Records
---
Amino acid sequence: MPRKRITQIFPWLLPLRIWQRRFCFYTRMRLDGNRYAVGKSETTLPYQLFETSCPLYNRETGFDMVYQGNKVFNLKLAAATLDKVIIGPNETFSFWKLVRYADRDIPYKDGLTVVDGKLTTTSGGGLCQMSNLLFWMFIHTPLTVVERHGHGIKDFPEPPSDAPMGVDATVSEGWLDLKVKNETEMSFQISITFDEDHIIGRLLTDQDNGQLYEVINGETLYYCKNNKVYEEVDVKQKTILTATGAYASEKLLYRNKCEIGYPLPEGTDIVEKGAKAK
């Protein structure tokens, strides 16, 4: 059995621990020497590098759909701090640097989130859908990923999207951030909009560098260990020359690993690495 944290033994200490983590989290950012992207431009940059969208509502969570509506409310608060942000040359994007005060005037609602490995509801729940979207956009660019954390467990099937498996980025204020650095001479602009059923993200640039990017899966493995089922999958980025459509390069971005917390489709090949799954 995992050892309990002190805040699990003495829950009244949790608010102090959260304050401490957030204080240290933002203090480190002030002192780390990075120039963080905070500026916005009402003028849209001229070149669209990538566009994507994903459904706002997931009906496979097992929770009341009211929490999906609350999530959408939270996403729109966060989007107001992210839309139109410019990431200039040598600037670093930080999710929490921008979203930190998204609920200053209007409080977040309770949405779904994972706490101590269990899916539950909490204020501001659901913001990971925004960080997932941003990460999917960022890996279609020459931006350098500085910090990204995958979800440790998938509690329910993902809604349909154009993203392959293993492309996600969980965030937790004071603990986990999403950061990318612009090491190019281009500027990038984030655009986040909504229609009735979807969130739509676009990345715009001030220059056409003659390249597009494709993200694909490589080797995928499902295996059982200690009565749990895990997924491991390679995530690769291909660079495409827009003038010819030819692939210029391919690289492995990372190998993603997570636990699967729901029944996989019948016939899925699962390799036994430990005790058999129940």
---
Amino acid sequence: MIAPPSRAAEQAARTRLAALAKPLGALGRVEDLAAWLAGCQDSCPPRPPERVRLTVLAGDHGIAAKGVSAYPPQVTAAMVHAFASGTAAAGVLARQHGVALRVLDIAVDADLDTPAGVGAHKIRRSSGSIDVEDALTAAELDAALLAGRAIAREEIEAGADLLILGDMGIGNTTPEAALIAATFGLTADEVVGRGTGVDDAGLARKTAAVAAALARAGDRASDPRARLQALGSADLAAGVGFLIAAATAGVPVLLDGLATLAELSVADELAPGTAAWCAAGHRSTEPAQRLALEKLGLLPVLDLDLRLGEGSGALLALPVLRSAALLAGEMALLSDLAG
């Protein structure tokens, strides 16, 4: 069980927010963000996050060969190069908001010619096709979880006061949907969305693949480790380890889209209390992500019909979180004006 954020600091922040020079509750959910951040920092008022670090975990997925994506698997390797060069969408947004970005090859199905360190935590090339086989061996699962923990520690040691977790991998919404379905007892029809924009035939193939994966995993999926091994991937398992390590260290995480919600759904079961250290950056168009938000009790900051991934939605939400802290700390108190 992971220790929760400071309830005393959160309550102190809510008391301060209620006393600001404004009608009670007039800042709506911005006040909730400020209180959450205060609890995570054990500080009232909270400090605007300044040392924000985005880690993009990249990996391929065997299920992509079954026609579940609108793009071929080779795009994953190309996008890793775009992240490394800063030309991906997340790179543009990271520069805008002063966020340090690191991309890591966890399971890309290629030997990449990228800057040193990108492959430092590589587990394997691609992951198993979950409709017919487990995504990982037990040893690979352990290695991926440990890699994720190590990556989070590296980001924290680099000075992060807020972490963002991004994803890159063609076909990844299929295992993500399967993990969420298995975690919350949902069906393939309930969780599967169009991902990269598949047509009706692609959507049918994707739904059938998730249904087959859930049937193959069977009762094993009731155990979070076995679920991750059977239905996940190396990059998703690394994300689970990352979230657990961040929560254990008391460093808040601003979540992105479907990938991070799938990772959190398993992480919070393996290490109860992880979700309390996470805020949802946005609500995506993917039904599995929306359902996981509801099940985990997370209200997203933004709702912009995003479905890109990469950490892009969290990066777009970051200014709102920073504004929440500034308002809590710098607005006048009503009592000061009255005096």
